[in-house]
Task: inverse folding
């Protein structure tokens, strides 16, 4: 049975999508069966998995509105035909594009609107070890669908001055969802991303995080690494684009940490 994790942080540009696609590729590289769900109308996780969002015939939009099953709408990540990259392990993708922006409004008035994704995932849960959901930068009905379907939340964050403040809103939302909608939901961990150890402030915030959240802070730390930023323009996760890059290796370490963590859940 799959363990389902949302990658969420309502702050924009903190590294959610980078975390989702690289964790998906990292988990696949250590032999896990993975479904990645793109819940963001920007479709960045879809594009970053080698799938053209404009060419999707079915997407997560159709699944949320009950006009397709995940089995019908999922596609396989695509690393292209040539070279060693083509041989890297792949994962399944439930893609997203602009259509999804309309779902927010269309879901209003439908029964059980926050549980649409959960119900659809239940049917395919046996096909996977991990389901990773890339959330948009908001606490919207889409994110709520992610949170209601998940066993836990992975929160990528940059170690900056306002990072802890932003976390309060997310932690409160997760508490509310836990209390009212999904008793299973918990924060699995905080992932320090785009980390630069030479910057004293980042070290200080990192220490504060550990004081505050203890072992909820993942051991893996993702460094700021240009290869991770270049990879999406090739439609690849960094882990596939350049497996030897420091950032890619950090994501494979993180994947291994996640495999160990799920055994203790
Ligand atoms: P949004 O809120 O818009 O969905 P996001 O939280 O998904 O954004 P990303 O798209 O993953 O954030 O990352 C934002 C930008 O930072 C991207 O250009 C990405 O390539 C870059 N980036 C992410 N992680 C790293 C890293 N570790 N090193 C260098 N660049 C990074
Ligand atoms: Mg994103």
Result:
């Amino acid at each position: 049975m799959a363990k389902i994790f949302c990658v969420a942080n309502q702050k924009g540009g903190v590294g959610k999508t980078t975390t989702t696609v690289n964790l998906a590729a990292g988990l696949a590289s250590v032999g896990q069966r993975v479904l990645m769900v793109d819940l963001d109308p920007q479709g960045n996780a879809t594009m970053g998995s080698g799938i053209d969002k404009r060419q999707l015939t079915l997407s997560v939009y159709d699944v949320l509105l009950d006009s397709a099953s995940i089995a019908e709408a999922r596609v396989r990540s695509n690393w292209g035909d040539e070279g060693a990259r083509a041989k890297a392990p792949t994962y399944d993708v439930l893609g997203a594009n602009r259509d999804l922006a309309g779902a927010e409004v269309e879901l209003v008035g439908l029964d059980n609107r926050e549980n649409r994704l959960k119900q659809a995932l239940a049917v395919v849960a046996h096909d996977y070890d991990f389901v990773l959901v890339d959330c948009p930068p908001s606490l919207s009905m889409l994110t709520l669908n992610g949170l209601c379907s998940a066993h836990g939340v992975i929160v990528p964050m940059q170690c900056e001055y306002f990072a802890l403040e932003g976390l309060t809103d997310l932690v409160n939302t997760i508490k509310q969802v836990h209390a009212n909608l999904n008793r299973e939901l918990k924060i699995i961990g905080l992932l320090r991303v785009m980390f630069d150890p030479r910057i004293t402030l980042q070290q200080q915030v990192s220490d504060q995080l550990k004081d505050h959240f203890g072992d909820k802070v993942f051991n893996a730390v993702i460094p700021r690494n240009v290869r991770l930023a270049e990879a999406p323009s090739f439609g690849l996760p960094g882990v596939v684009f350049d497996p030897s890059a420091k950032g890619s290796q950090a994501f494979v370490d993180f994947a291994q940490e996640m495999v160990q963590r799920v055994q203790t859940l």
In short: Residues 3-264 form a domain with the Rossmann fold fold (CATH 3.40.50.300). The beta strands are 3-7, 34-38, 75-76, 92-94, 130-134, 152-157, 186-195, 217-223. The chain has one domain: 3-264.
